[in-house]
Design goal:
Blueprint (H helix, E strand, L loop, with lengths): L1 H11 L2 E2 L1 H4 L1 E5 L13 E5 L2 E6 L7 H9 L4 E5 L3 H10 L1 H6 L5 H21 L4 H20 L3 H8 L6 H18 L5 H13 L9 H4 L7 H8 L1 H12 L4 H9 L20 H15 L12 H10 L7 H14 L2 H6 L10 E8 L2 E8 L4 E2 L7 E3 L5 E3 L7 E6 L8 E5 L1 H5 L5 E10 L5 E7 L5 H9 L6 E2 L5
Parallel strand pairs: 8-15
Antiparallel strand pairs: 1-4, 2-5, 3-4, 3-5, 6-7, 6-12, 9-10, 11-14, 12-13, 13-14
Helix pairs in contact: 4-6, 6-7, 6-8, 6-9, 7-9, 7-10, 9-10, 9-15, 10-14, 13-14, 14-15, 15-16, 16-17
This protein binds fe (ii) ion.
Length: 479
């Protein structure tokens, strides 16, 4: 213990800069203390970061309480440790979901972030038995969250990412499948868990599909599409080698692309040949695909349009009863503005932002929601006020930096892209930018400065101003 205190005191006088170090904020009140044990823990004071607990040293409940008594709500861990952190969180998920002292919103956020992290790992290589068991554990926690609270599905949907990454799709399908099955009267926790596990695993066969095909931004050729179709059989074969699959997992994995009229794949099953769970999985899979931004598709469906499309395709392709139940689930759970106005994401214009760090062939993805508002932006031709010493003319802008407030830090040189409905409406559904700086604020948020790779027109900047959830966008400078 004496040694621990000594390390803490020494470290306190040796601050590190968060923006360069790459730290993740951890809400102390919400996470289990064991998720921080053995990790380097940093504290933030006045914009500086100090090592509080060295790696390998015990960090216990009493330590956490002491920090909370000092009104320290957040500690920080290294981005490098995020995998260890999330794996510990994963083990504690059921306890977190059942903890009456943690806000429902926080539980949902923790569950979603943990599930995304696991999905990234499932897709990093063919998953083994251990990963399949972990998927079942995450599915169990999702079932518990949804069953405990009537409003939980709406909360979960609210934080869904709608980008084209397979990892987010796996998690979305897991949550949608469990909620829909429950909506249709299935309350058996074990079976719901299997359905959710199937959702998390349903596209793992994509690890056998070449990345250049999966990630192409061009329209798929017929040959490429045939290659992609193989993911169903390859995924099933792989999972069967790993372990004995329950009928529910098997149905979701192997039938999610089958259609009632036999037009689906891989087997072209028809009507009764398709299991009820296979039909259900096909509906939620299609819905999530339609409402997600895809690199090769120019347009994303709003929630309302996607439901209409499913309805138009029933009973030919989709089971009528399940589509009807799904429509009720979505319409009852989501705010009305989400239904009509918000392709690619709920919330009537919330910006979703994803960042990826490319190291070798691997991509680590981080997912953010960024509430920001616009300031200091004027009309075309007006002078923009950039503080006392800086001015520039709006129509000459070729490259700008925009500051976002984010709840997680970005690393300099990370690529990010931004999508939202307003940008899509003007034909820009993806803005790619490179992070140039990440600055911490006292409240645990980060301002992220991003340089856009393509010039931003004043129209696009104006569109950014109209995003309701935006809290702060400041035009900083033209180099
Ligand atoms: Fe699929």
């Amino acid at each position: 213990m004496a040694e621990e205190v000594l390390v803490k005191e020494e470290a306190a006088g040796n601050p590190l800069l968060c923006s360069q170090a790459g730290l993740l904020p951890v809400p102390l009140r919400c996470v289990p203390v064991e998720s921080l044990t053995n990790l380097e823990i940093y504290l933030q004071t006045g914009g500086k970061y100090s090592l509080y607990n060295a790696k390998g040293l015990h960090f216990g409940l009493r330590d956490a309480e002491r920090l909370l008594e000092r009104k320290i709500e957040y500690v920080y861990i290294s981005v490098k440790d995020h995998q260890v952190y999330y794996e510990t969180m994963e083990k504690a998920l059921s306890r977190i979901v059942g903890d009456p002292n943690i806000q429902e919103e926080k539980k949902t956020e923790i569950l979603y972030a943990t599930a995304i992290e696991l999905s990234n790992q499932l897709l990093a290589g063919p998953p083994g038995k251990e990963e399949v068991k972990r998927a079942a554990n995450v599915a169990r926690a999702t079932v518990e969250l949804i069953m405990r609270n009537r409003m939980a599905f709406g909360g979960l949907y609210e934080i869904f990412n709608h980008d084209f990454y397979t990892a987010t799709h796996l998690v979305n399908v897991c949550g949608l499948s469990i909620s829909l099955a429950q909506k249709m009267g299935l309350y058996d926790v074990e079976i719901l868990q299997q359905i959710g596990t199937g959702g998390l695993l349903h596209d793992v066969g994509k690890v056998f599909v070449p990345n250049e095909i999966l990630n192409t931004t061009e329209r798929l050729t017929a040959e490429q599409f045939e290659t992609i179709k193989n993911h169903v059989l390859l995924g099933r074969q792989h999972l069967e080698k790993v372990m004995l699959l329950s009928p529910e997992i098997l149905a979701v994995v192997s039938e999610h692309h089958e259609r009632m009229d036999g037009s689906g794949y891989p087997k072209g099953l028809r009507n009764e040949e398709l299991s009820p769970l296979g039909r259900l999985a096909g509906i939620v899979d299609t819905f999530d695909a339609m409402t997600s931004v895809r690199p090769y598709r120019s347009r994303t469906f709003s929630v309302g349009e996607a439901l209409q499309e499913l309805e138009d395709q029933m009973p030919k392709k989709f089971d009528k009863e399940i589509v009807n139940a799904f429509t009720v689930l979505i319409e009852k759970s989501l705010p009305q503005n989400t239904m009509a106005n918000s392709p690619g994401g709920p919330g009537g214009g919330k910006v979703q932002i994803s960042a990826e760090t490319i190291s070798g062939a691997k991509c680590t993805q981080f997912y953010f929601r960024i509430p920001i508002t616009v300031r200091k932006l004027e009309k075309t031709g007006d002078k923009l006020s950039l503080g006392p010493a800086r001015k520039l003319t709006a129509h000459k802008i070729t490259c700008v930096r925009i500051g976002f407030l984010s709840d997680l830090p970005f690393l300099p040189d990370q690529n990010i892209y931004i999508t939202n409905q307003q940008l899509e409406a003007i034909g820009m559904n993806k803005l790619i930018a490179t992070i140039s700086r990440c600055i911490n604020h006292r409240d645990g948020w980060y301002t992220v400065e991003a340089e856009f790779i393509h010039p931003l027109s004043i129209e696009i900047i104006d569109k950014l101003k109209t995003i309701t959830a935006v809290r702060e966008v400041s035009l900083l400078a033209e180099n």
